[in-house]
Design goal:
There is one protein chain. By secondary structure, this protein is of the alpha/beta class. The protein contains 19 helices and 18 strands. The protein has two domains: 276 residues, Glycogen Phosphorylase B (Rossmann fold); 213 residues, Rossmann fold, CATH 3.40.50. α13 links the parallel β14 and β15. The two termini are 33 Å apart. It binds GDP-alpha-D-glucose (GDG). GDP-alpha-D-glucose binds next to α2, β13, β14, α14 and α15.
Length: 504
């Protein structure tokens, strides 16, 4: 099997990409792209929800290589070989998935603990929700080390491009580099990076930055997050920081920091929205849920997370039905919600609050023939999601902080019929690309939020069309392929420079 990255772009059409092309791509993430689970004694393969795996699996399928991830399914061990490896996707078997098996204690402390009770709230600038503990940190360190060892088991890291994903692995690059100084490591951070005064509230700020600076290339969604990161490094470490060019000299090495706004497979989403499958899924959604025949449809699609601003959105909708009674029995809101991190108290609280608020609003305004809010907590296949987006007159994205938010882009790519309106919080990464043509809201300004939904619902078709056309062009031109090309081009340039330095 040819394990090289091969089809990566050559930088500026230059000739010397030898080093890059001979390296195997090893992608490392916490969540695995395929989970094997027992269902009535039979092993089933499940694709988990979430922006990261849905964005990167098609890329791995076309590139080949190895994906190292936590084997979280109860049948993962049985479905893998003695090294924890299995070829995926099941239909094409184009790359290797290597599972790292974790104990319950590790899951509690590394995943739910340090990753999701420390780093997640910290990076979303919600330090009041941080819960620090020596156990969390110890397990985070050990688990990062275990992943670094799993990478080494797959082959010599000096012959690979190791691509870490996200906040679960701030230390693993350092552990890989300690054992293999020539490894090429890069990392993409899928959530925001906070300002220094916020980041400083984490007691391990120095170790985290040191771990991340073992990468050669570090990517964030936005330039703002890059600037925040550079600022943190200049405050916390003895490093030279070149803010303008996104370069850091640290520990005798140069680290490049750059913005790569993540995107979606726009073409696939558009095709899905136009498909007969989406029509069938729409019919079956209407059979399963009290969706309106007429009137307007508004949608929100979120993991049940306190950063997504779901409660703020429900407050705005309640105001809307209160102030503009003409929307009663006319406007239905569908909340597509996925349960997430339910072992954490704050997440249980979000689930309870959202359900209670919906029940209260439905009780207050609902009639015999009309349910104002339809709550969908089933997992939907992509074609059903496409149908829901396509049919929605308005999509509400109201996060309090969000690294990017792929839902906003998915909605845009699925608008193949009468164009709808995207109402977008100014606090999400996607606002940088879509903010000019979406209607902007501040999720905490309930009255203005309600008025903006009203404006979206009343917008003339010509204005909807031109706003949506601009956003569609933006999402099509900057899709997941463009993202991958940009990241790999940067990596390639760095490798070429290293090559030149080595042979000079
Ligand atoms: C993190 C960052 C960043 C939801 N329900 C179903 C379903 N989904 C899919 C959506 C979307 C994904 O889940 C959610 O992605 P987001 O980007 O909105 O948010 P996070 O999960 O918080 O992702 C975020 C992202 O990483 C990538 O870097 O954008 O800022 O927080 O793709 O469509 N998919 C299916 N059925 C469902 O029922 N098939």
């Amino acid at each position: 099997m040819d394990k090289s990255i091969g089809a990566t772009p050559k930088s500026n059409g230059s000739t010397s990409t030898k080093t890059f092309e001979n390296r195997e791509l090893v992608l490392v993430s916490n969540r695995e792209p395929y989970v094997h689970e027992y269902d009535d004694g039979e092993i089933q393969v499940v694709k988990p929800e979430g922006g990261l795996t849905s964005a990167l699996d098609p890329m791995m399928a076309s590139t080949g290589g190895t994906w190292v991830a936590w084997g979280s399914g109860d049948a993962d061990d049985e479905a893998s070989d003695g090294n924890g490896c299995v070829r995926v996707p099941p239909e094409s078997q184009s790359y290797e998935l290597k599972r790292v098996f974790l104990t319950d204690e590790q899951v509690t402390n590394y995943y739910y603990g340090y990753s999701n009770k420390v780093l997640w709230p910290l990076c979303h600038s919600d330090t009041a929700k941080m819960e620090t503990s020596a156990q969390f940190w110890r397990h985070y360190r050990e688990t990062n080390r275990q992943f670094a060892e799993a990478i080494r088991e797959q082959g010599d890291p000096s012959n690979a491009v190791i691509w870490f994903q996200d906040y679960h692995f701030a230390l693993a690059p350092r552990y890989v580099r300690e054992a293999s100084p020539d490894a090429f490591c890069m990392q993409f951070w899928h959530i925001p990076w906070p300002s220094w005064d916020v980041f400083q509230s984490c007691p391990q700020y120095e170790e985290l930055l040191d771990g991340l600076l073992a990468n050669d290339l570090l990517g964030f969604h936005l330039d703002q997050y890059c600037q925040n990161f550079l600022d943190c490094v200049s405050h916390a470490l003895d490093a030279e920081v070149d803010r303008e060019n996104g370069r850091i000299r640290y520990d005798g090495r140069t680290i490049r920091v750059a913005a790569f706004p993540l995107s979606i497979d726009a073409e696939e989403r558009t095709a899905l929205a136009r498909s007969a499958e989406a029509d069938e899924q729409w019919d079956s959604l209407r059979e399963s849920y009290p969706l309106p025949e007429d009137g307007q449809l508004v949608v929100g699609v979120d993991r049940l997370d306190y950063t997504k601003g779901i409660e703020q959105r429900l407050d705005a909708l309640e105001h809307l039905w209160e102030w503009y009674p003409e929307h009663r029995e006319q406007l239905t809101y569908v909340q597509k919600a996925s349960e997430s991190r339910s072992r954490i108290e704050e997440y249980q609280q979000v689930q309870t609050n959202v359900k209670q608020k919906i029940a209260r609003i439905n009780d207050r305004f609902g009639t015999e023939d009309w349910q104002p809010i339809v709550y969908v907590d089933d997992y939907l296949p992509l074609s059903a999601l496409a149908a829901l987006y396509r049919e929605a007159d308005v999509c509400l994205v109201s996060s309090l902080r969000d690294g990017m938010n792929l839902v906003a882009k998915e909605y845009v790519a699925s608008q193949v019929d009468e164009p709808g309106v995207l109402v977008l919080s100014e606090l999400v990464g996607a606002h940088e690309e879509l903010g000019e043509s979406a209607l902007t809201v501040h999720p905490n300004d309930t009255e203005a939020f309600a008025a903006t939904i009203q404006r979206a619902l009343a917008m003339e078709p010509s204005e909807r069309s031109s706003r949506m056309a601009t956003m569609r062009r933006q999402v099509e031109a900057n899709d997941i392929d463009a993202w991958k090309r940009n990241v790999l081009r940067q990596a390639n340039e760095i490798l070429e420079r290293e090559d030149e330095a080595a042979t000079a």
